[in-house]
Amino acid sequence: MRSVYGVLFLAAALLSAAAQEPAYKNPALPAEERAADLVHRMTLEEKVGQMGSAAHAIPRLDVPAYNYWNEALHGVARSGYATMFPQAIGMAATWDAPLLHQVGDAIATEARAKNSEALRHGNHDIYFGLTFWSPNINIFRDPRWGRGQETYGEDPFLTGTLGVNFIRGLQGDDPHYYKVIATPKHFAVHSGPENIRHKFDVTPTRHDLWDTYLPQFRMAIVDGKADSIMCSYNAVDGAPACGSTMLLQQVLRQDWGFHGFVTSDCGAIDDFFKPNTHQTEPDAEHADRDALLAGTDTNCGATYEHLGDAVRQGLIQEADIDRSLIRLFTARMELGLFDPPATVPYAQTPFSAVHSPENVAVAQRTAEESMVLLKNDGILPLASGRFRHIAVVGPNAAMLSSLEGNYNGTPYDPQLPVDAIRRTLTAASVRYAPGAPFVDGFMLPVPRTMLHPSPNSKEEGLKAEYFASPSLSGTPLLTRIDPGIDFNWSGVNPLPQHPSTGFAVRWTGTLTLPAAGEYQFQLSAGPCNHCAYEQSYTVRIDGQVVTEAKALPEGTETGPVQVNGTTGLPQESHQQRPTKFAFKADKAGAHTIEVDFVRSSAEHGTGITLSFMPPAEQLLQHAIETARDSDLVIAMLGLTPTLEGEEMPINLQGFQGGDRTDVALPAAQEKLLEALTALGKPVVVVLLNGSALAVNFAEQHANAILEAWYPGEAGAQAIADTLTGANNPGGRLPITFYRSINDLPSFTDYTMKGRTYRYFAGDPLFGFGYGLSYTTFSYANVHASTKHLAAGQPLVVEADVTNSGKLAGDEVAQLYLLPPDTGNSGLSPLRQLEGFERVHLKPGETRHLRFTLHARELSEVDAHGARSVQAGAYQIYVGGSQPSSSSLHTQYANFNIEGSADVAH
User: Fold this and answer.
1) Residue 814: inside a domain, yes or no?
2) 587, 608, 629 - which closes a domain
3) Active site residue 125
4) Number of domains comprising the chain
5) What does the alpha-carbon distance between residue 399 and residue 520 come to, in Å, rounded to a whole number?
């Protein structure tokens, strides 16, 4: 009997202990129940401390600090080395939905590896969490928008399909835990202008709202099951998006059944009350009320720090805060952040998964698939040995940032395009000349052609000595020749043997200037991660110190940045202001130069770029001389993310605030291209850019044009392989390339009439969906499953595509719906993409295609925003581009819809 009582006593003790364990620590309970239990144990002050993107630790409840702000647009960003995929617009150009799933999965794997490593070291900093503010699925309605590069283009169906696959790849398929949480943004009706986004009120028509601006968000939430979403800066119909009950309650939660959490864009709730913004409320407390009650759960910024005062003033109830906190902690529970790591599959991801061979291979494939051939008179692919002397000309031939795009991580040992071309075309002599600035008045990295490691040396670049501590004393650990000073070392140490220590670099050699006179230079440090480090640099020319600067840890009494001994250049949203200085040369030719760079920390810090204001005429003459002595010119032109991007301090001809005021190739580059073609040499143009360019002169005079976007870490080799034929280009444009800004309505006009391939009735330079190949494809047997379809029923469309050429290649089969005039007040699109598939075919190979169109794909939106399937005679087109007057009759199928059927929002 004693043994039986003993067993019963032990069981009772275990049950008692279990009963005393807080519910939020029990992994067997539902995540929302655990979250509610945890939230209800907090004081009001503790709750308020959880409502910002940088949530505080609560030691008494074993709640660690957590930062919701993390970036993964095309690779894990701002947290050190990571595999860097092409910028989002380049990924869209692949038209490869399964590949986007692979990319998302690879990014999430690296995110988990970084998070686990960070937690092992007690690091809960920004950019090391598991809630990622990606993808950007706003519609790229106007090529002037600087952030269009972050999107998947101008079409809701393409954007939504790619976005769903990317989201599913990020979030994983485990039944209990998210791999990471995706946050599609910016909800909603957001696509510039950047310089007025904090006060801009968009008033879209009901048709455009539901036809263009919301469908891809619906796909992300309903089909992709994204567990988070970010509201945008702009107002919609008079209400700031982060305070819009229409968007956040009616559409998001009621219509779409969203159960996740909403985060504000950074500072967006400040825009409710601060000067020169929406100013819909008088102060922070009232702004907090509007945002919280509308459904914004967490605030990137400091405004929600006033939530306690809002409760005390009776503007909100503590229960309103609880509702949002339960959503936020439910997400953290579903990430496994409150469970033993051994029980969370993704928490076992080793740090070696970062930049693994498998992920590198996906980045290489994505870069190759993103290449879009816009013109080719037969010069490409470049035949081996055909050209013995090649001139690589243009500012993008050796520009690191034009590989990276924005919202990027730190690439491993990136190869620049001119170097990839040299390494690939080994039988040719390849000479380089920058040729032109991106735009007149804009700094350009000092080109390697002006730098030499010693006097009289013909080798390009500077001698670089790398020291394994933040000191320029002792013996350097590494000595090499660096082509220039243009490095992204954000959060990393360039010496892999010492990954977590500070370091120093000294560059020495000569700087060759084309003429006597005063030259303007700039040292840029790049993005910084809260600048919790010391960083300094000194430049000496001809033995004299021409500038020195020091960045100090934030919070120091002297301020964060000192330049030439003077304090007063503040940090600005993770971006150090560049240090500008002048040098007056008393002669042309070589001048000795020494640049010292010292950084106290590896984990927190930036890179360094030495730029100057280039003398445009000298650059042009050097390029002409280089091209004149060559058999072939490869002109690498376009834009750079240091010109187009998010709310930037840029005001130059054609550029304002990160946006563009013109879509033409900048005049300095146009002048260079005209001079090159005038030489009578064959010219191949390679474009690196994040938005459409009106390259009319190139289309008329160049032998070939290759669109390469901002192609990521593998982009340079992908360009070289495409030029030589090792990669047969199969990418397609996700945006329309217009001929002129005159083809576009006002940038601030959000009406879709006359915009994008769906509503533009003019003749584009290159149309949405366009792209060439080194082989040819043909289509046959296009037919629909019925000629008479009852409204609301699905339609199956089938077709055969054949590689009719002599080379293996990829084709992007595109299905367009051509609606009739159904009495919809002329609101129906001219054509609408409703299916696509990228297929690889060997010569002579045929692939059978099958597309299923459901009621949503067959529907249209009326003037009131209602979506329905309407009766009428419809056409389906299947081909490798949009339908045109030259499309073959055999690529169409006709059918009639009988009756009508409503389709839910």
Assistant:
1) yes
2) 608
3) no
4) 2
5) 19
